[in-house]
Amino acid sequence: MVIKIRSIYPLIVLVILLSLLPTLLWAQAGRGKGRVRGTVKDEEGNPIVGAKIVADTDRYELKFEAESDQNGRWAIMGMGVAQWRFTASKEGYIPAMLNLNVSTVRSNPPLDFVLKKATTAEILGGKEETRQLILQAEQNFNSGKYNEALQAYQQVLAENPSIYQLHVNVGSCYLELGEYDKAIAEYEAFLEQEPDYSPVLSKLGETYVRKGDFDQAVGYFQKVIEHSPDEHTTYYNIAEIYFDSGDVDKAIEYYQKALEVKPDWGKGHLKLGYAYLNKGDNEQAVLHFEKFLELEPDSPDAPLVKELISRIKGGSV
Question: pTM above the 0.85 mark?
Answer without folding.
Answer: no
